[in-house]
Amino acid sequence: MASMAAFTLVAIDPDTESYEVGRPFIEKAGVAHKVDFREGKGLEKLDDLLAEEAAAGREAAFDFAFVDADKPNYTITPDPISSRWS
Questions:
Q1: Residue ranges per domain, the chain?
Q2: Cβ burial, residue 31 (10 Å; 0-12/13-18/19+)
Q3: Does the pLDDT at position 30 exceed 90?
Q4: Mind telling me which Pfam families this protein's record contains (predicted)?
Q5: Cα–Cα distance, 51 to 57 (Å, whole number)
Q6: Burial category of 18 from C-beta neighbours within 10 Å (exposed 0-12, middle 13-18, buried 19 and up)
Q7: pLDDT at residue 44 above 70?
């Protein structure tokens, strides 16, 4: 598992307003520099993230994934993630 110093939290949401509601709490916690917010649909942005890592010569690895949206696709979403647990 990544140390606290090495973590990055990737937050994906189709609504920037939701992120903006939480931003003050993220800033107060002193971890705003650790949050990579990506606006858009989860599966599309996850594909983008994996492609970026591959282009940089890195294999994306996840210590934790929490999926709380797009409920009809719950059975689809873990596939691109589950093979990348670190």
A1: 4-82
A2: middle
A3: yes
A4: Methyltransf_3
A5: 10
A6: middle
A7: yes
Name the pTM for this structure: 0.69
Beta bridge partners of 85: 62
What tokens does 58 get? 């890195």
How high is the pLDDT of residue 82?
61
Tell me, which fold does domain 4-82 have in CATH? Rossmann fold (3.40.50)
Beta carbons within 8 Å of 49's beta carbon, 6+ residues apart: 10, 38, 60
| pLDDT in the model for residue 32 | 93
CB 60 within 8 A of CB 53: yes
Q: CB 64: neighbour CB atoms within 10 A?
A: 11
Q: Are the CB atoms for 35 and 26 separated by under 8 Å?
A: yes
